[in-house]
Amino acid sequence: MHDTDTKTFPHSDRPRVAVIGAGVCGLGIGWRLAQAGCSVDVFDRDEAGHGATWASAGMLAAGAEAEPGEEALLPLAREAQRRWPDFVRALEADSGCEVDYRDEGTLIVALTHDDVEQLRFTYDYQRGLGIDLTWMTGAEARRREPHLRAGIAAAVYSPADHQVDNRKLVRALAVAFTRAGGRLHERSPVTAIDVEVGRVRGVVLGERRHDADAVVLAAGAWSREIEGLPESAMPPVRPVKGQALALRMDPAAPVLRHVLWAPKIYMVPRRDGRLLIGATVEEKGFDTALTAGGVFELLEAAWRPLPAIEELPIDEMWVGFRPTSRDDAPIFGPTALPGLFLATGHHRNGILLAPVTADMMAECVLSGKLPPEAQPFAIDRFTSPPRPAAAIHEGAVQR
User: Fold this and answer.
1) What are phi and psi of 319, to 5 degrees?
2) Residues 264-278: pLDDT tens digits?
3) How far is Cα 195 from Cα 212, in angstroms, rounded to an integer?
4) Do 31 and 89 lie in a common domain?
5) What is the pLDDT of residue 11?
6) Residue ranges, the chain, pLDDT below 50
7) Which among 291, 325, 359 is the end of a domain?
8) Are 149 and 231 part of one and the same domain?
9) Given this model, what pLDDT does residue 14 score?
10) What is the structure's pLDDT at 90?
11) Are residues 244 and 259 in the same domain?
């Protein structure tokens, strides 16, 4: 793993940091660095938070989303989940904004015999990882959610998998960041990294240069579009398209109260009555088209466990781009180019990992070293011999 020079900021009592990307990760890092006394500017090509953060559903599902092959990521995801309540309290206090953190838990339902077999396999696997889950009959699930289809075969309840309103979250982060002294530059696309004598000296915005002692690249799916990145620091990140939509429930009588997972679908209820339904997974680059097939697929998959959605009006439809790395895990830390740091490639876990991304990357920028929990996710893993999974797991939980 690359470490920066121990004198990361040799000529400044108040380090100057430029962050590229004003999503939940970029703003979270900027907020923590501003709190630590840095002079921080966050730049975004669009409005703050209107990339993957805006398109997401805000699920904090370290348990329900744990899959075979992703064991190395689980300790970091569970640590992020553990930090969320304190992160919310600090953010709401600093911003004066509510983010609608909800802790009812998540239901995963099976509709058919084959679904039950798959659910049982996943349940046994996740329980083997120490995740707190409860197996339920269909009748027990319907007592929790009365609008579920009659005949639900089985369900699993995950009490620790919560949710947050992602759009309120990013607005709160923008307020907290600026209140801490940070400067937010919307519709200000960074075109290049400015490099002099082998180290970062700032960023370039068209014809203008902005000087900085350190640069954090947190541009999500657009991270490879910044010029001046050396090959060794070019993150292997691509956009994975997702179509999603929201229906409108009666907030006083919602048809769903828990986050619900069913075959090929998830549904996330909001306090304001919106019911988010997502999301397709498409390797189509930056294709922004909403398609009849994609929307039909979502609505059909949502209707099967929850037929009450049939009468609900459509509130919104959108397309987002998950920033996905070669191994579906985030990329953290310093690079071989002194002064350049990466925080990208979060795939579907950007919201979940927001607290650890903010804390660990702020620590990394200030010290030049990546905290132990994040070391398995340095960019070196794509060029260095892979570490055994057990070694990665052990390193990720050391404090």
Assistant:
1) -125, 135
2) 999 999 999 999 999
3) 11
4) yes
5) 53
6) 1, 3-7, 386-399
7) 325
8) no
9) 86
10) 98
11) yes
pTM metric for this prediction: 0.92
Q: Is residue 203 part of a domain?
A: yes
Q: Is residue 6 part of a domain?
A: no
Question: Are 310 and 244 part of one and the same domain?
Answer: yes
311 and 186 share one domain: no
CATH number of the domain bearing residue 218 = 3.50.50.60
Q: Is residue 226 domain-shared with residue 313, that is, in the same domain?
A: no
pLDDT given for residue 399 in this prediction: 20
Look at residue 383 in the predicted model and tell me its pLDDT. 84
Q: Which of 325, 360, 381 is the last residue of a domain?
A: 325
Q: What is the pLDDT of residues 290-313, one digit of tens each?
A: 999 999 999 999 999 999 999 999
Tokens of 64: 């329900």
